[in-house]
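Homework-ish question, so no full write-ups if that breaks the rules, but can someone show me the predicted structure for this set?
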Amino acid sequence: MRNEREPTRDELLAMAYVDGELSAEGRAELESRLGQSPELRREVSELKELELLARAAAPKEPMDHEWAALAKDPVQRAALGLGWTLLIVGFLGLSALGLWQLFRSDAPLALKLLVPALLLGGALLLGATLRARLRTLPLDPYRKVQR
Amino acid sequence: MILSTTDAVSGRTIVETIGLVRGSSVRSAHVGRDVLAKLKNLVGGEVTEYTKLLAESREQALDRMVEEARARGADAIVGLRFMSSDIGDDAAEMLAYGTAVRLG
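A: Not a homework solution, just the prediction itself:
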């Protein structure tokens, strides 16, 4: 019994595109459609990811098994989790405390306004950059390359 | 597409030299990976975070070079070379370049 469905025309086109088997006209046509179709963009990206994984296929090294074991080790996981949590809490706490001290101090009003403006500006820029990265992340096949 | 670091493709004849093709990529790790990499700098050993970063840049640069060669109707790239430089702190830049050719 077969439970595999036949690939659609677009899937076949995406495969040919990633494998470099399309003519110049075929490539140009598909590339123009990529701008309009998120499904096609995702399909091409997934196939590219598959091609990269196949290209980078290499025997596991002894150290890889140790890294994998460490990733599952409860002590290692707890140390990393707690470490990151304390680092983030410490950073945010110190920032908040610094701001609070600034507002309570006798510092000039301009400083009390400019420092939060600077921090807010930085946070907004970081947020916008992070948003852009999260939007493009699923279409970045290179993120799975290991070495 | 045949990729060769030598100036010829064994058993094939180059019938046309198309010209220089290249691809480059600059990638960076996120702050989490950077923090762990910095800590590994203290204790030694392979910094896998940066091994991965360099590999990502290498593969992307290679693909961009191949794409250019393909668009120009090449069958192969000979004299392939990789080059790296430091664009910024904790960013990996890779440049792949070679000569696109048509084979007989």
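Now go work out the reasoning yourself. Hint: Chain B has one domain: 2-103.
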